[in-house]
C-alpha cells in the first residue's frame, strides 16, 4: 500500500502591493464593482459526495479510504484528509476488508469488481447524474448500438462511463476528432457526453458528428448536468460586462476550467482561474473597474468569500449578484450509507444543492 499523501503546507500570506499603488499604476475610470454569479459553487452531487465522506468518518471512524479525489477541489480534499480520509489512486492500495468510498465522478464495473475481490465495504458516492449516463451506456450497448462518448480522455468520469461498454464505445475528445472517426455502422450510432463539458463545445461536437453521421441518435435527455449548464449560463451574462473574471476552482476541475474558457469566449477582457484568494494577483486590478466572480461546482462558498474579501480591500466593495437560475435539487445519500445511518439513529439523511447547507 502506498503512503498516504501528506497535508499541504499552510498557505503563505502574499506580500501584496497596496491599493494606492495599484490605483496610481493604472487609474480606474468609473466606480468599481463586483458582478457575482448565481448559481455558483457546490452542486447537489458534490454536496452529496462530500457529506458521504464526512458521515462515513463520523459513523465508521477513520481511516475512510476514497478512490481518487472525492471531488476535484484541493481545499475539500485537504479538509477531509485532516479529518481522517485517505485518498488513493487505485483499489489495490486499500487494505483488505476496509471501507472504500467511490468518488462523485463514478467508476467502471472493473473497479467495483476489484473492490469486491479485496473484500472491501464500499459506499458509492457517484453523482446520480453521472450514474444516469452509465445506465444509458449499458442500455445502448445491450441494443447493439455503438456509443460515441463526448468527453476528455483521461478524465475519471469518462473512464468510468467508457468502462460500462468498452467494446462498443469510442471517446470523442473534441470537435476536431470527428473527421477521423472510424465506426462500424454509421446508421447505428448514439452519442453520450461527460456531464461537465462546455455546453457550446458539446453542441458543436454533436453538430459535426451529425454532419458525418446523419442518422446519429440522441440520448433521451441532455447529459451535461444542470449545475454545469447553469454556471456557464451565469458567466455568459457577466462576461461581456467584466474587465476581469475570476473563476474559483482547481486546475483538475473540468467545469471550473470550462468556466474560465466560457468567460473569455463571451467577452471578458481577462479571465483567470484560482484555487483561492492567495492566488489572485493584485496586478490584475490595474485599470479594472468591473470584476466578475464565479466558482466551479466543486468549490465551497468559503473560498469565494475569501476572494470577495480581498476584492473589498482593493475597493471592490459594491456587489451585484447576477442571478440567471434557481437551484433546488436534492439528492439522498448513497444507499449503503443510509442503511448505516438508520441503524445508528441519524435522521439527517437528505442533502441539497445551493443554499441547503452552511458553507464549509
Automatic annotation (TrEMBL):
One of its GO terms (molecular function) is 4-hydroxy-3-methylbut-2-enyl diphosphate reductase activity. Gene3D superfamilies: 3.40.50.11270, 4-hydroxy-3-methylbut-2-enyl diphosphate reductase, catalytic domain. Residues 1-24 are annotated as: Disordered. It comes from the Bacteria. Keywords: 4Fe-4S, Iron, Iron-sulfur, Isoprene biosynthesis, Metal-binding, Oxidoreductase. Binds 1 [4Fe-4S] cluster per subunit. Dimethylallyl diphosphate binds at residues 72, 105, 155, 253-255, 298. This is 4-hydroxy-3-methylbut-2-enyl diphosphate reductase. It holds the Pfam family LYTB. Catalyzes the conversion of 1-hydroxy-2-methyl-2-(E)-butenyl 4-diphosphate (HMBPP) into a mixture of isopentenyl diphosphate (IPP) and dimethylallyl diphosphate (DMAPP). Acts in the terminal step of the DOXP/MEP pathway for isoprenoid precursor biosynthesis. NCBIfam families: ispH_lytB (TIGR00216), PRK01045.1-3 (NF002189), PRK01045.1-4 (NF002190). The active site is at 157 (proton donor). InterPro entries: LytB/IspH. Belongs to the IspH family. [4Fe-4S] cluster binds at residues 43, 127, 225. GO terms for biological process: dimethylallyl diphosphate biosynthetic process; isopentenyl diphosphate biosynthetic process, methylerythritol 4-phosphate pathway; terpenoid biosynthetic process. (2E)-4-hydroxy-3-methylbut-2-enyl diphosphate binds at residues 72, 105, 155, 195, 253-255, 298.
Amino acid at each position: 500500500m502506498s503512503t498516504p499523501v501528506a497535508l499541504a503546507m499552510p498557505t503563505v500570506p502574499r506580500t501584496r502591493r497596496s491599493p494606492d499603488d495599484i490605483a496610481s499604476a493604472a487609474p480606474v475610470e468609473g466606480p468599481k464593482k463586483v458582478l457575482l454569479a448565481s448559481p455558483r459553487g457546490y452542486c447537489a452531487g458534490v454536496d452529496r459526495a462530500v457529506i458521504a465522506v464526512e458521515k462515513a468518518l463520523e459513523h465508521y471512524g477513520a481511516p475512510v479510504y476514497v478512490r481518487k479525489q472525492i471531488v476535484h477541489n484541493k481545499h475539500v480534499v485537504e479538509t477531509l484528509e485532516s479529518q481522517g480520509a485517505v485518498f488513493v489512486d487505485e483499489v489495490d492500495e486499500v487494505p483488505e476488508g476496509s471501507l472504500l468510498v467511490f468518488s462523485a465522478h463514478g467508476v467502471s464495473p472493473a473497479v467495483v469488481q476489484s473492490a469486491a475481490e479485496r473484500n472491501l465495504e464500499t459506499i458509492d458516492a457517484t453523482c446520480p447524474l453521472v450514474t444516469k449516463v452509465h445506465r444509458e451506456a449499458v442500455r445502448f450497448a445491450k441494443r447493439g448500438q455503438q456509443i460515441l462518448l463526448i468527453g476528455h480522455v483521461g478524465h475519471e468520469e469518462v473512464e468510468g462511463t467508457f468502462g460500462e461498454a468498452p467494446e462498443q464505445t469510442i471517446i470523442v475528445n473534441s470537435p476536431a476528432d470527428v473527421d477521423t472517426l472510424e465506426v462500424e455502422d454509421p446508421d447505428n450510432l448514439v452519442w453520450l457526453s461527460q456531464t461537465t463539458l462546455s455546453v457550446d463545445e458539446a453542441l458543436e461536437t454533436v453538430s459535426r458528428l451529425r454532419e458525418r453521421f446523419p442518422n446519429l441518435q440522441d440520448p433521451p435527455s441532455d447529459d451535461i448536468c444542470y449545475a454545469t449548464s447553469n454556471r456557464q449560463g451565469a458567466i455568459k451574462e457577466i462576461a461581456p460586462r467584466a474587465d476581469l473574471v475570476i473563476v474559483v476552482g482547481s486546475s483538475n476541475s473540468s467545469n471550473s476550467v470550462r468556466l474560465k474558457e466560457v468567460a473569455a469566449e463571451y467577452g471578458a477582457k481577462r479571465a483567470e482561474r484560482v484555487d483561492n484568494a492567495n492566488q489572485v494577483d493584485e496586478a490584475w486590478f490595474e485599470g479594472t473597474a468591473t470584476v466578475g466572480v464565479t466558482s466551479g461546482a466543486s468549490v465551497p462558498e468559503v473560498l469565494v468569500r475569501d476572494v470577495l474579501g480581498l476584492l473589498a480591500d482593493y475597493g471592490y466593495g459594491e456587489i451585484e449578484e447576477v442571478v440567471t437560475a434557481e437551484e433546488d435539487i436534492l439528492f439522498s445519500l448513497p444507499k449503503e450509507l443510509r442503511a448505516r445511518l438508520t441503524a445508528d439513529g441519524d435522521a439527517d439523511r437528505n442533502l441539497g444543492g445551493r443554499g441547503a447547507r452552511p458553507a464549509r
